[in-house]
Design brief:
The chain is α/β, with parallel strands linked by helices and 298 residues long. It has ten helices and 13 strands. It has a six-stranded mixed sheet with strand order 5-6-7-3-8-9, with helices on both faces. The longest helix is centred in the middle third of the chain and has 18 residues. GO terms for molecular function: ATP binding; ATP hydrolysis activity.
């Protein structure tokens, strides 16, 4: 069986009294494009920084590709990381970035890097500080992928990009995955982007993992159930209520059927889409209740 790309057990990171990540337990399989979703301050960047070895946990453990993050230079070479502001060196040209990448990374793929720069139309002589936001993101993506890592980590790389640049970045990302056979973790607060490119999901809110799994499995196991008020008080074993909404006459539940069985015996039942599922978990974590029925079904 393939080694998980990330395995975390009770992983916790605190900054003084403030929890950034609390008791995170995860087992993310290899070969996935993982969407890490949650609001600002949920703990997404903290989890990715822990995975990249940029910070150390307060307690608990995390293994990346079967080893401690950033354990040595060999482990560093197995992971490509692109931070939130897609960092590049403003005074270096595109070509100088490629030469620097080659010097720092023993498995550097020069033909791949140069072919990608040509494909996306970047001028090798142009300084990075004069590139557009989308071009900087593409350069950072190329640098990370040319390492030939086993895992690529992206911390909201498209957050500041316009829709066209964001679409181009995600398209290139999917091409990279197909071409270099790499696992990816992509942090985002844009559910539409996650739905477009990801096949595994981790929802973080209030510093805790709310749910995680393959997207198809999660959406197949979440349902909206509607019935007369008082008839949905008892649920089958293995059914977790994620959100509840009452009117004078009826009750609406969003439920997670952990055994995957559709709870048709409860009342009127329909599947819950990815966006509605994510929003429901986020509302629950924030203690604000479920999104309204009108919001959920829009």
């Amino acid at each position: 069986m393939d080694t998980p790309v990330i395995r975390a057990d009770a992983l916790t990171k605190r900054y003084g009294p403030h929890p950034a990540l609390t008791d995170a337990t995860l087992d993310i399989p290899a070969g996935r494009i993982v969407g890490l979703v949650g609001p600002n301050g949920a703990g997404k960047s903290t989890l990715l920084a822990l995975a990249a070895g940029l910070i150390r946990p307060t307690s608990g453990t995390i293994d990346v590709l079967g080893r401690r993050p950033a354990a040595d230079t060999a482990q560093l070479a197995r992971v490509g990381f692109v931070a939130q502001d897609t960092p590049v060196y403003a005074q270096l040209t595109v070509a100088e970035h490629l030469r620097l990448g080659e010097r720092l990374n023993p498995a550097w793929d020069r033909p791949f890097a140069h072919a990608r720069i040509k494909q996306i139309g970047l001028d090798p002589a142009k300084k990075a500080g004069r590139l557009s936001g989308g071009q900087k993101a593409q350069l950072a993506l190329t640098l990370a992928a040319a390492k030939r890592p086993e895992l690529l980590i992206f911390d909201e790389p498209v957050a500041a990009l316009d829709p066209l640049a964001r679409r181009a970045f995600l398209q290139n990302l999917m091409e990279f995955v197909a071409e270099i056979d790499v696992s990816v973790i992509l942090s985002s607060h844009l559910i539409s982007d996650v739905e477009r490119v990801c096949d595994h999901l981790v929802i973080l809110a209030e510093s805790r993992v709310q749910v995680a799994g393959d997207i198809d499995d999660l959406t197949a196991a979440h349902f909206r159930v509607v019935g007369p008020r008082g008839t949905l008080d008892t649920l089958p074993a293995g059914t977790d209520v994620i959100a509840t909404e009452h009117t004078d006459r009826q009750t609406t539940l969003i439920v997670h059927a952990r055994n995957g069985t559709r709870p048709d015996t409860l009342g009127q039942t329909e599947p819950v889409g990815l966006e509605d599922m994510v929003l429901t978990y986020l509302h629950r974590a924030q203690g604000t209740g479920a999104p309204t029925l009108q919001e959920s079904t829009r």
